[in-house]
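Assemble and predict.
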Amino acid sequence: GQQLNQSPQSMFIQEGEDVSMNCTSSSIFNTWLWYKQDPGEGPVLLIALYKAGELTSNGRLTAQFGITRKDSFLNISASIPSDVGIYFCAGQRDDSGYALNFGKGTSLLVTP
Amino acid sequence: GAVVSQHPSRVICKSGTSVKIECRSLDFQATTMFWYRQFPKQSLMLMATSNEGSKATYEQGVEKDKFLINHASLTLSTLTVTSAHPEDSSFYICSARDLRGAYYNEQFFGPGTRLTVL
């Protein structure tokens, strides 16, 4: 399957700073999802977006489904040390058996 | 949310042996299960999609005779790595989805299985 373009690849920030990462694709998706993965564990869903233009928040996290349906961004406000991990975007097309195409991930490090 | 378990969480085997990994949906019926492989510091790559009672659909480049997938019930799918070699060492993650139930629009991931082939 197609791998999405996710940036930045890694971020090293101080506690309290805001973080922004994004994902782009050459093709349209019906659903965009953002996951967090801790070392040695499976991904955990953070936010799911189902409509173009949709802006959704989950606590300090905010994500948007791009109008063109080919991109999405995730913002984390006021980062804390437990935000450390790898964040993946994923796109899903309803006509492809609901399988997910993942981005390459953004590794986030937060210093106290 | 729904829970997906995997067993074992870690397995070490000798080259040439076969290894079976189980994926279970604990509190919902998984009409569809997906198997992903993740190499260190890389993303999840889809290996195959399986629907309950049907043969799995494999992604291009994934050998179906090497990675045997069985989805015999609505709560269990198994991945068997046959004649494993060191290059098969990876983190294998399953996910499950219920296309008919309350969680029809979500996909839940298991905790992963770390396979090391010596």
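Chain A has a mean pLDDT of 93.
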